[in-house]
Design goal:
The chain is an alpha+beta fold. Helices cover 40% and strands 21% of the residues. The protein has one domain.
Length: 122
């Protein structure tokens, strides 16, 4: 009978015990990402649902969203903010929620986006 090679514990692959977590460089990198995050608004087609999400580079995120969508997805715009703001907006517009991060394009949401972006028209 062949013996399987013994596996190293996951901790030894990281070089540190799991309970110690990541070092200061990892934490600095994570903080930098959080500071650069933006809440974005994308729309499925000209009058379709609106996606409220977060990302560091919303234009790149739009490409990923477009891949799974047969209609053109447009990036309406983005504002500074991270997970906390995204969660607040999801809660605020919960009554317009469709699925995932997609919301009905009601006038209330459109007005919020215009105000947040400082524009008169979308």
């Amino acid at each position: 009978m062949k013996r399987r090679p013994t596996r190293k514990p996951f901790e030894s692959l990281l070089g540190q015990p799991l309970e110690q977590g990541f070092g200061p460089q990892q934490k600095q990198w994570q903080r930098a990402i959080e500071e650069e995050q933006r809440v974005y608004f994308m729309q499925d087609g000209a009058e379709g649902p609106i996606k409220i999400g977060i990302g560091v580079v919303p234009r790149q995120r739009r490409s990923g969203v477009q891949t799974g969508n047969p209609r053109p997805v447009r990036l309406i715009g983005s504002i500074p903010g991270g997970k906390q703001l995204e969660d607040q907006l999801h809660a605020r517009f919960d009554h317009l929620h469709i699925q995932g991060e997609w919301y009905q394009p009601a006038q209330e949401l459109l007005d919020y986006i215009k105000d947040a972006l400082g524009v008169e028209e979308l």
